[in-house]
Write a structure and sequence with these properties.
about 250 residues, disordered N terminus, about 40% helix, 7 helices, Undecaprenyl pyrophosphate synthetase, globular, six-stranded parallel sheet, alpha/beta, single chain, binds 3-methylbut-3-enyl trihydrogen diphosphate, binds magnesium ion, 8 strands
Amino acid sequence: MAALEHITGEGNSTVPRHIAIILDGNGRWAKKRGLPRTAGHAAGAETFRRIATYCKNIGVNYLTVYAFSTENWSRPEEEVKSIMKLLDRYLREAIATMERDHIRMKILGDVSILSPSLRAEIEETNRISSRYEGFQANICLNYGGRAEILQAAKRYARDLVEGKASADLTEDGFSSYLYSAGIPDPELLIRPGGEKRISNFLLWQCAYSEFYFTDVLWPDFTPEELDRAIAEFSRRDRRFGGVKNG
Ligand code: IPE
Ligand code: IPE
Ligand code: MG
């Protein structure tokens, strides 16, 4: 597909339409520098800004990042509070620039328990996003893959009982109940920070994603590192259960 071919720093690579990233390693980045974990989260937010811009420039259509999981509430209250404050600031700043840069942004997760100011910002980003087409950044917030599938099952069951859905449920039909409704599955999932696990991220959507793990801590992640991930992705043989051609 010509529209998906782009020159990255690693030569002529196929740029995935949708890249997902688990933003991990902020705490260790800070610790290495003798800084509080919060400083790592602040640095991580800057890295997200840089990488999102880079993705937009090389023709990625969707960038989905894992920013706060349903499990992250178990962290010390101070850390949770500071992450929420950072997200609040980040969204406020993003709202100010989305119109200028024509960026779409979607928050995926159970936002109902977030603070009123965060929820107001999320509504505003949705409102602005509906005016544009093109690059979309998805931020997973109070997101859990299992929680996402469970709420989809509950909503489908309700629709079925109310006669709004057919009993003949398909995979596509079920996908439309997920937070990610309408967004194609990620072709490439990147996890920086050295861990090799999925940590409850996009369990349904990553059924056939290519995984790329790196020890680089998220705040140190660069466009060159993204190029490396894309180059590696381009070399993978995606068979989807079939057999290799030739
Ligand atoms: C990722 O960095 C950010 C969140 C999960 C909110 P971490 O805070 O998990 O950083 P490490 O894994 O402790 O280094
Ligand atoms: C995954 O990172 C969640 C986010 C990046 C939001 P964690 O640091 O929470 O994951 P674990 O604890 O290493 O599995
Ligand atoms: Mg971590």
